[in-house]
Structures are given as C-alpha cells and as structure tokens.
Design brief:
Shape: elongated
Radius of gyration: 19 Å
Strand content: under 5%
Length: 180
C-alpha cells in the first residue's frame, strides 16, 4: 500500500518524469562504478596497476568535494534545474571524451585521470539540485520529495520474512522509514 502523500506525488507528471530520469541516472552511476575501474585496469601502466586504479577512482570522486567547496560562491544562487543540467553536460562531455579517446586507442593514463576529475567537478552541485527539485515537487513542506530523495540516496528496504537484513535509515529518511 502506497501512502497517500506518495500517491499524490506520483500523480504529478513532472515528478514521474524527474523520478524516471533519476532512475536512469542511477543506473548509469552504477555502471560507471564498474567501468571506471575496468578501464583503469586497461589503461594503467603495467608496473603501477593497483596505484592507477586507486587514482582513477579517487579522480572520479574527490573533485566533487573540491567543486562543492571552491565553487560555492558562484553556484549557490543558481536554480536547481541549472545545477542539474550543468552537472549533466559537464559529465557527458568529459566522459564522452573518455569514450572517444578509448575507442580510438588515444587514451593515455594522464588524460584518463584528468577527464575523470573534470567529469566529477560538479557532482555535489548536481546532487543538490536533484534533491532540491524533488523537495520542490513534494508539496509545501517538501517532506515527501525529500524522503524520496533519501530513498534514492541509499535507504535499503528488504523483506524481513526473507531473512534479509534491513539497513538503518538516515536521519533525513526517518519519516519514510516510519511509513514502510
């Protein structure tokens, strides 16, 4: 049984479109987790394989934190939609360049790390925009949309009868967890 607040949210065409897009984006994020390491293994200098894979994963994640801190003064006034679009365009451009260079055999280890770093520079701002858009669709207090955002961020719910464990809800997901 879906609670009434969620039925109302899912009845909104804008919310369904946004949630569909976020679902596809999450699938891409999951695929990229495997692909980043796999391509790092293929691109790495033979003597530094482990180090290079670690550097590639760090290059794909850490610049997001740097971008959050360094670009805050310039980006915090932008609307949520602009933040999401800027992140998507940046990621598509840099990761598209990785794909093109890898397909032509021209992807060097240094270029790979630099392109990964560039692709993740606005990740924190894109996530903030997504959460804001969901909260805005969630009604006057934004609770329903914010709880769905928390669901997307990783609140796992498993059937207790099947014996699977249940993860602890995050504080911003407490309302959703109570409804489940």
């Amino acid at each position: 049984m879906i609670p009434g607040a969620y039925r109302a949210l899912l009845a909104d065409r804008r919310a369904r479109r946004l949630l569909s897009g976020l679902g596809v984006s999450s699938l891409g994020d999951g695929l990229s987790t495997v692909t980043i390491a796999w391509l790092a293994i293929r691109t790495a200098p033979a003597r530094d394989l482990g180090l290079f894979v670690g550097l590639a994963i760090a290059a794909y994640t850490l610049p997001g934190a740097i971008g959050a801190l360094a670009l805050g003064r310039h980006l915090r006034r932008l609307p949520a939609r602009a933040l999401v679009l800027a992140n998507c365009v940046l990621r598509a451009g840099f990761l598209g360049a990785v794909t093109g260079l890898a397909a032509t055999g021209a992807l060097s280890p240094i270029a790979y790390l630099a392109l990964l770093a560039g692709s993740s520079l606005l990740t924190s701002w894109g996530s903030a925009g997504q959460y804001t858009m969901l909260a805005d669709l969630g009604g006057e207090d934004g609770t329903t949309g914010g709880e769905l955002a928390g669901q997307r961020a990783g609140l796992a719910r498993h059937d207790r009868r099947a014996g699977a464990r249940r993860t602890a809800p995050r504080p911003h997901c407490a309302g959703m967890a109570a409804r489940l």
